[in-house]
Every structure is written in C-alpha cells, then in structure tokens.
Design brief:
- About 35% of the residues lie in helices and about 20% in strands.
- With about 350 residues, it is α+β, with helices and mostly antiparallel strands.
- Strand 8, helix 12 and strand 9 form a beta-alpha-beta unit.
- The two termini are about 40 Å apart.
C-alpha cells in the first residue's frame, strides 16, 4: 500500500490480522484433480502461444521467467491519490470491467499498485539490507524475481468509502462485507483472490483481500473460486492436504497471538514448495522456561526477546525434495518450532529442529 506501510506489501512475513486459519477449501477426488490439471496445462500452453503466459506461477519457489519483462506490454495510469501505477494491458482492461461492475453496486475501488520491476525489487532489498542488515532483509523482503508483482498481473486494490480513499491495510481489512462482494465479481472478469485465508503454507502470504491476480481466463478463475483452491494447487505445484491447527490453551497468550505465530510457521513452509504440512499444535505454556528464553536470546543477541512459544508440526517431504535440512519422501512428526518476540510485537522464527535447545 503506501510507502509508510510498504513492508506489508513486500514482506514474506504473514502478519494478516483477523485471519481465520481454515484449510484451503474443499479438495476434489483424484479423477477431478487430473481433469483440473489437464485443463490448467491446456490453458497455460494456449497462453504461451499468445506471448506471455497469463497462468504463470511466481512465488517463493517459482521465479519470474527470464524473458518476461521483454515480452510484457503495460500501460500507466494515475490513481485517485495521484500515484502512477503500471499494469499489464489486458489486466488493466479487465480491471476497468471489474470496476464498472462494482460501481453498479455502489462499491468504489482504485489501483494502489501493480507491476514492480525486478530492478525495483532489488533496490528495495538493497535498502533493507543497508538499513536493517542482510539477515533481516532476507527474512522480510521477497527475493528479486520471486514477487508476483513483477508480472504486472497482480493488482492491489484500495477502497473509496464515502468519497474518501482508504489505503492502509489495517483500515481496509475492516470492510469484510465489501471485500466479500468484490470477491464475488472477480472470476467473471478473469481474476482470482490470490492470497486466501488459511493458505499461508502454500502461498507464503497471509490473507490479503485487496490482492487480486489476472488469469485472462474466466473459466479457470471460476473453477479456482468454486473449488476454493490456490493457484499453486490448480496448477499442480502444491498437492498437500488440509492443515490441522491446535491452539491448545494458554494463560499467557490470546488465541490471536497464537494464530499470528502459526501464520509465521505456515509461511516458512511455502519456501519449501510442495511439502505436505499436516498439523501444527501449540506445545503449551509449560514448554517455555526462563532458561529457554535466555537460550533464544543467545541465538539472536540483538533481539531482546521477552516472550517465547514452541509449536510441534507434522509434515511429509515430496520424493523430489532437495532442501538439505530434510530428507526426501519422509514423514516428520513432532518437529519443533521456536518463536520469540518482544511483548506485543511480531513473532520471529528463531530456530526449528528436533529437540532444539
């Protein structure tokens, strides 16, 4: 959104407020999955023949195609707050149709951001590295080449309520009824909601009701919406099932505190691609002692943590998994994740391992 809240657009952190951690929608049976995969592949091949691939997947593990920026055709528009926004041409035409359909229901939106070049992303990475250090920058900013905004097909909307621009994430998230009506119109114009609730382990991002993605295919968009799946699932890049979440009971943290921690863990799984995350559960208040908190502060000497939490996860790695820290085609159970924060602040994943500490 605006520069003062740019972290919330760029970050791989998943700090969405009011996220309801459900599964990723109803999963279809095997035969239907194969039909969906075949349809997705056909759409992708047709799109490639027409220049850019409108079904392209760009995320934490899938980089922008090398020749994308050479092929991309964009337009520039000026939004209601005077900012220049660059958008892929067909995506912009579809956005205008969406905007017109919404205005018939007295819902008013404008474009906050769309295309961000790889070079721009590199500058942001360099700025964060200089200001906060390389480790912080790597944890919080999408790697250049791995942001969907590079495509020009990812659009961030903002609301205009009673003639006033509502541009900050924390303000927009409150208008749940309006976003629901907007989402109902997306597929007709070839858009999908890119980062739905509960899919952080797949997309790497928390719920963003304003972030929509153009597919140039209304049928594909309608199928994705009807099935309640992500683009990753539709294209077969993620084949895992639903995630069971157990917040247990705590006298230290609210359920929202624990949800925020769970989102951070789920987002990390997105960096590992098609790992089937099965469950996350809070280890309980008793898992963290003063000794453990001291240990976490020793691991991150500059952090000054005052609170910590531990979670167990169960997951299965795919047969083609290449991350050195894990073995391919293996079940992992009771795998520990240690998070810490200053009271009231955001959670950091400090370490994860079997029997850490």
């Amino acid at each position: 959104m605006k520069m003062k809240s740019i972290v919330s657009i760029l970050l791989c952190l998943c700090l969405a407020a009011a996220v309801i951690l459900t599964g990723c929608g109803d999963k279809s049976d095997g035969a239907s999955d194969k039909a969906t995969q075949a349809a997705a592949e056909a759409v992708t091949e047709a799109a490639k023949a027409d220049g850019i691939d409108y079904m392209v997947l760009v995320n934490k593990t899938h980089a922008l195609p090398d020749d994308w920026e050479d092929k991309l055709e964009t337009i520039h528009m000026t939004n209601s707050v005077g900012d220049d926004v660059e958008v892929e041409k067909k995506a912009y035409d579809a956005y205008l149709k969406l905007k017109e359909a919404l205005e018939k229901e007295d819902i008013h939106v404008d474009l906050d951001s769309a295309r961000r070049s790889v070079a721009d992303q590199q500058r942001i990475m360099d700025e964060f590295t200089e200001q906060y250090g390389a480790d912080y920058a790597a944890k919080t900013v999408d790697q250049p080449g791995c942001s969907e905004h590079h495509t020009g097909l990812a659009l961030d909307l903002y609301l205009i309520i009673d003639g006033k621009d509502v541009v900050e994430n924390e303000d927009m998230i409150k208008y749940t009824d309006i976003w629901a009506k907007i989402h109902e119109k997306l597929a007709d114009c070839g858009f999908i909601l890119r980062y739905p609730d509960g899919a952080e382990h797949i997309t790497g991002c928390g719920y963003e009701p304003w972030h929509i993605r153009y597919l140039d295919n209304a049928d594909a968009a309608k199928e994705i919406a009807a099935k309640g799946v992500t683009l990753e699932e539709y294209l077969g890049a993620y084949t895992g099932g639903e995630v069971s979440i157990d917040y247990g009971t705590s006298e230290i943290y609210t359920e929202q505190d624990l949800r925020d921690a769970v989102i951070r863990i789920k987002c990390r799984f997105a960096f590992w691609g098609n790992v089937d995350l099965k469950s996350i559960r809070y280890a309980g208040d008793e898992a963290v002692s003063e000794e453990k908190l001291k240990w976490l502060n020793e691991l991150e000497p500059q952090a000054g943590y005052t609170q910590a939490a531990m979670f167990f996860t169960d997951f299965h790695t795919p047969a083609d998994f290449t991350q050195n820290v894990f073995t391919a085609d293996t079940d992992y159970t009771d795998y520990q994740w240690w998070l810490a924060r200053k009271a009231g602040g955001g959670w950091d994943i400090v370490t994860f391992a079997y029997d850490a500490g």
